[in-house]
Amino acid sequence: MQPFALKNALDNVRQTTPLVHSITNYVTVNDCANALLAIGASPIMSDEPADVEDITGVCGGLVLNIGTLNERSIAGMFAAGERASQLGHPIVLDPVGAGASSLRTKTAGDLLDNLAVSVIRGNMSEAKALAGGSAATRGVDVCPDDAVTEDNLEAAAAFAREFAAKTGCVVAITGAIDVVADGERAYAIRNGSSLMGRVTGAGCMLSCVCGAFATANPDNCLDATVAAVASMGLAGQIAQGRMGGFDGNGSFRTYLLDALFNLDGDALEAGAKVAKLS
Amino acid sequence: MQPFALKNALDNVRQTTPLVHSITNYVTVNDCANALLAIGASPIMSDEPADVEDITGVCGGLVLNIGTLNERSIAGMFAAGERASQLGHPIVLDPVGAGASSLRTKTAGDLLDNLAVSVIRGNMSEAKALAGGSAATRGVDVCPDDAVTEDNLEAAAAFAREFAAKTGCVVAITGAIDVVADGERAYAIRNGSSLMGRVTGAGCMLSCVCGAFATANPDNCLDATVAAVASMGLAGQIAQGRMGGFDGNGSFRTYLLDALFNLDGDALEAGAKVAKLS
Amino acid sequence: MQPFALKNALDNVRQTTPLVHSITNYVTVNDCANALLAIGASPIMSDEPADVEDITGVCGGLVLNIGTLNERSIAGMFAAGERASQLGHPIVLDPVGAGASSLRTKTAGDLLDNLAVSVIRGNMSEAKALAGGSAATRGVDVCPDDAVTEDNLEAAAAFAREFAAKTGCVVAITGAIDVVADGERAYAIRNGSSLMGRVTGAGCMLSCVCGAFATANPDNCLDATVAAVASMGLAGQIAQGRMGGFDGNGSFRTYLLDALFNLDGDALEAGAKVAKLS
After folding, report:
1. How do residues B66-96 score in pLDDT, each as one tens digit?
2. What domains lie within chain A, and their CATH numbers?
3. Cβ-based contacts under 8 A for chains A and C
4. Which of A30, A37, A59, A251 is the mutation pick for testing B, counting most B CBs within 10 A?
5. ipTM score here?
6. A54 has a chain B CB within 8 A of its CB
């Protein structure tokens, strides 16, 4: 990546306060809104088909998260997504639970096929289900067999690059090691904390943060996504460092938002562990 | 205001534990419920048209918040609102995002026209959209041009008084400076913290708190609303005072609820910055 | 109870990471998901009828909570419940607000009549409404006249045993004193904190925690439910013990999740106040 690419990407978020329209699940939506505010963006949520086109129209980016999808919100996702596609807004797709139900797999696939999606953000099981390579998931968690490790990292990167080339999207596959790729380049990001799997919504928040970065950095979606993933991972590490003896996932959730809120471009450059893969 | 009006208004909430039915958005609903509990009220949420009349019937007040409105919840708002109007319960209307979409502007206007609304609580852009004077908003945030400042405070108060006179409601326009008015009197409230704009839901929570105060103080809706607005603003200041070096909007959200929970009538009298406007 | 029954029940949750499908209200759903993660389970939420059967199929247990029920989620509850019944998964029913509206009373009754419910978890007013013995509630809170006290404890236990015998369920009636019974045995649990009534969702979280314990301890639903209720009560006490001078219900909510997260089987055995009733 270019020198200071991460810092510049974060600075662009904080200086432009991008408005991001999110259609997301009701489990983690509050954390998603606060994560957007923490990183310097402004959140708007609306899933009613009769409302979403206007809301998308006043925003700069769109995040579609299929957790707790329903008939109405699916219609809302397509209506908002078509408007965002017309307007050239970046669209982030989070295929929560793709592979765990046929409705989720089909909906994620239809959204990807019909909208101008910029970024796909999910775990490896979801990404494989969406790419048609697998249908096994452990609910909304990654299957142990699918987890990205140092041993299978090159294969994971090759899969991500291929999926990115096929779809024209930036693909962010997150887990213990994160992989972010477009059709040509792939990066591994080794930030993060295992506690991020012990709070609900770390992935959903990251997808919204990706939306903020993509909206504020329209000319470089790959670097923007790497910066978003590294920011969330570094925030997780900072949050873990604050944990005291009585703290658990309640406090970690608070610390994670706090760390995003206080994240500084220079600290991001210094702390991000981003490596280009062959 | 009368001496001890603020303290009395808060004491009435704490002593009567008003049950407040809220139909509100799924983004901030948890914070709304906890804000009601913090101030001494008891929350109930229900938006299904077949359920809301019974629920309204066992409550003492109603809050209608149109964030994440949908076809079902709009029907629920009218059904609950008609029942509350029949029962003489105070109704608080929070026109979230009025002006940002035609559905929101129309729904807020229809609710106002058809129900016996007692209090309208929103930012200046939303209030102007509802009053028919403007259609510009920045999503769910106030347009910079609409923000109430010391320079335009008298004009803002005149607008609020006029809108209150026209609708028969108490109008609470909140921002850096809050204005609360009925058709005759207007107050400026200079409490609050800029951090309240960096967490989602400060406005939604305030609307619910207004519902608690209006329900517990049925004979003086204006003073009740001033007390609610001052309470939330003072809680914001107290929360800001607790912020440490690693704290961000995650901690601020927690501290805000804590401050509401611990707010005391004497502290409210001492800390409220309420000024009658000419 | 058998020696170490509580510790064993908790250890089984932590060692098997049960996947629990919850169809629950949008007010407290985030806390429910984090409570499941805190106790060592894995949460999945889905309420769309076209999605729930697949989701139930990949899980091990089901929690049905009727707060903020609507036409869609009711259909989802029946579809998920029928699938769970076929699969022999434990089902926990939380009849939030039964007695407060006819839709809630009827829906809770229909779910109980048509599904293989394993555990009913509610307050005494809800339990009475569901048993047909009363229709009075104070919204989603217990009626003061219904509260379980030392004076009426034996009568409460007799009611719980009778209701359990009639339905074939384990019945958990929670409040200042908790009563858990099957058709033959009843236990009183005297853990907990009065602050649990000042945050939204303590009951909803407990129902999900009951789902985790029932799923991880399929051969002893009564002991599993006693362990779940004692765990939540002890977590409440630990959370209360952390409260500082500025803390309120915002901090208590965080501390409650933290205490569940850090709860240890030995500490549970040592701190649980479980008494067999005659």
Report:
1. 999 999 999 999 999 999 999 999 999 999 9
2. 6-277 (3.40.1190.20)
3. 105
4. A30
5. 0.96
6. yes
